[in-house]
User: Fold this.
Amino acid sequence: MAQRIDLTTQALAIAVETAIRNLNAGEVILAPSEFGYVYLCDAFKPDAVKAMHILRGDPEGVVPQVFIKDAKVLSGLVTNVSDEIGLLIEKFWPGPLSITFNVQPGLSWNLGDSGKLGKVNIRIPNQNFLLQILESSGPLAVAAAALSGKAATLDLATLPIYESDIGVIFTDGVLTSPGRSTIIDASGATLKIKRSGVINDNEISALIPGIFT
Assistant:
């Protein structure tokens, strides 16, 4: 069985230290996010990313989302951050805005597509435990702790894996989810709202008039 740490009782610093130790060792960990429990691993450890895909039963070529600690990290990961994207980041990060970028050529990671897609979806989560981890971990590959195509796991009693396949599980009781993140596609010539979510389309249009939906 995986080690379980209850975030409602464990000191934050100890929980973060345990998470970092497991991530550095190439383990997949499980933790709460705003939208449900998620798997997390070091985005630059391909074996860990592969293990996460296996846990979910992902088909070949699926690329997980990546969490980062702040927008300054983007310059080392993606090719371009436009002024319009900068406005969205300033207003909605940390938070439920996910943005798809073109990846920097030659970036030394393999998120599951062997670099063929050339794109990555990035978000800064608005969850204190995750933000504390990101301060020390670097970019993290992340995916819902559920089988591919299934709804997010809110109650760990329904976790669809053997716990021995996880380095450590951080629990926070039964979660509630406000919905899903809003996805903006910034990989093309024009910005597009790829998926409507918690952030209303009108809030985005107020910042970026004429954005495609």
Summary: The chain has one domain: 3-79+99-177. The chain has five helices and ten strands. The radius of gyration is 17 Å. The first helix runs from residue 12 to 24.
